[in-house]
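Team,

Forwarding the record for the chain on the shared tracking sheet. I've put the sequence and predicted structure together so nobody has to dig through attachments.
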Amino acid sequence: MIGYVIAAAGLYPLVAALLVLGMRRLRRSAARADADCPTVTVVVTARNEAGTLPVCVESLLALDYPADRLDFVLVDDRSTDGTGALLDDVARRTSRVRVLHTELLPDNGLDAKARGLAHGMANATGEWILITDADARVPRSWARHLVGRVDASTALVGGTAIVEPRQWWGRAERTTWAFLQTINLGFAGWGRAVVCVGPNMGIRRSVYVAAGGLERARFRIAEDLALFRMGRDAGGGAQVYADAETAVLMQQVPSPTHLTSQLRRWVGGALEQGPAYRLGVPFALAWGVGVAAFWLAGWAVAPTAWVAFVVAKIVVDALLLSTIGSRVSVRALSRDVLRLWAVQLVAMAWLPASMVVARRIQWRGDGYAVKYT
């Protein structure tokens, strides 16, 4: 066991180096001239998000994009608070906003966030459909830069998602999101992106329609992975960016419980996808459990190897966080290495068993929840 962990830990700096180089290879996004901007529909679905929606909607309406080529479909998905009334008020103030209330629409057979999202995307009219979350705030440059480099071969676009922390678990969430995104961004730099994150992605509408929409996708939890697979199955490319112009800022989850539920959702969502995800996730969990065990007990059985491991992991993780932080202009990320380690320890000690025992997961807020199989 110790030999396995030492060997795996020895590969870690090599893998991390490839990820860092990949992130540095990523092209920066670029602003598209008004005359070349494609039509865009932004879709947001919300359930009981009256407290977070005003900031989200304000940032969307402030987007720097030709007004005649940008519209919004905002979905109230069976909310029981003031979400529906808030959205209706927005629609009265601007003709570019269309509001859907899903309780007035036929059931589409989907669960949680995917239900409202599918209704919104079915009513999109733009050449591109951009998606963000009701608790997110987009920069003014977001839409113009996300589609800034698309061509006929592009099926998907995506940016990064950065958490704005208020409490300690918010800082842990920000570090976790940042660290996990280094994997995708690193692969993307080598032309092998594995996902576009749900709060910050876009898909060409013709690709979405040809695939039959989310209603025909085979998934239950991870609608972003389902959309990503649509683009890949259509043979289209994915342009993924890591820069401030395309980064969305998200409010932290309401509690530590929501954070752990989110970790389960990521794992459960990946396991319902193709073979690469179903094989990769168990391998990553096994590696993580082994590393966590060595971190906790390795000092007693192999002190020299343990010291080398700890030093190497601190340097490597700080480099990964520093690289994504510099790309999206959040310099403080590199100082969160110890917080990242704490999250990894708890997650690896608890997550595998939790996937069996606690099958109910929540999305980032209290509105959406589902049980995975």
